[in-house]
Amino acid sequence: MHYDLTTLPNGLRVISEPMPSLRSVALGCWIDTGTRDELPNEHGASHFLEHLLFKGSEKLSARQVSEIFDSIGAESNAFTSKESTCYWARLLDQDLGTGFDVLSEMLQRPAFRQNEIDAERQVVIEEINMNDDDPDDVAFENFTTAVFVDHPLEAPVLGTRESIRGMSRDDILGYWKRRYGAGSMVVAAAGSVDHQALVDMVAERFGDWSGDNVEHEFGEAAPWPVVRITRRETEQAHIVIGGKGLTRSDEKRWAFEVLNHVLGSGMSSRLFREIREERGLAYAVYGFKMAYADAGAWGVYVGTTPSQTETAMDVIREELSKVVSDGITEEELDRAKGSMRGGLALAMEDPNSRMVRLGRDELSGMPHLSVDERLAKLEAVTLDEVKSIAAELFTGQRMIGAVGPYDEGDLDAFLAV
Fold this sequence. Notes:
The protein is α+β, with helices and mostly antiparallel strands. It has helices at 45-53, 62-71, 96-108, 114-132, 135-147, 161-166, 169-179, 195-206, 253-264, 270-278, 309-326, 330-347, 351-364, 371-379, 383-394, and strands at 4-7, 13-18, 24-31, 75-80, 85-92, 185-191, 226-231, 237-244, 285-291, 296-304, 398-404. It has two domains: 4-206, CATH 3.30.830.10; 226-415, Cytochrome Bc1 Complex, Chain A, domain 1. It is 44% helix and 18% strand. The strands form two sheets. A six-stranded mixed sheet has the order 1-2-6-3-5-4, with helices on both faces. Strands 7-11-8-10-9 form a five-stranded mixed sheet. A hairpin with a 5-residue loop joins strand 1 and strand 2. It is globular. The model has no long low-confidence stretch (mean pLDDT 95).
């Protein structure tokens, strides 16, 4: 991995990685702000603002923004997380300046026209409605609010219907002024790009932008065992069970990556084999992790017929207990490492994946590890380390988020370790 990093006099960072065999560039403008940074009157503002910036500036209308990107065949969009917001484009190298022209207008001089705010307000509410109609999303949101209760990470990324309806233009403008600026931004690019040429483009368009680094409220999550159910008469129940996990910088994360792969990632994982292949209890079952600066979570998702809930949950709890008491086998360790080696190599062939890794790691202060360095971290994981992290995480308090025809108390028994 070869990357170049330059910090402009106004604090804006520019990071790039060349991929000489390509003609395209993946470009991302990363802002160091997300859901965790919103005030009570701003719940959902990070995501709402992401929508509104595509409405353009005083110079560019929303239609002009879309027409310019279409005219050069570019892909462009944005995404918001609990910790960051990214505006991205993938385009031909010869059109990089055009893409920067549009993004710089959007980010630095948004119009915030009242009629467009009101129209997009309803679009965001429709997005909330869409997510609420997806029982998977609701189950995960129930779990997330349980594991990060009373923590800045608790609030949903989309906000609520009430918070979006109540958000004024002044609220949105105030959030943009407080969180957006040169000091809180990283420009990341991967593909057919020359670093110095990229720096010159950024300096020309963003060099006069001001703004200091932004701060975040950090603290340890302190959840308690709880079940959060959204009762619905669904044909399939959706259940997420898990607990506190690791922060993103915890060195034990490499051992947990291996553990999660063996337990619930892929068709050879223990949960997939036992729950789907052997017993036919579910179509989808998998393990996952959430890792942030100051808190994290682990979990298992399963979608099953309500009448099979007890059997499926008993199998999950049994498999968790097995890795705590016995660990994993040498064969499983080798297979997990091999699978992860291949997945990492494939991801690094995609310029968009490289851009995301560059921008996210630079914004969060994580080290920029090469493929070889990442592989070395994985190869160094031992059976004892995997067993140790299983004992640390899987014997702690558990939380459950669920959607299905359940009443209060129906799933409480599954909180027991």
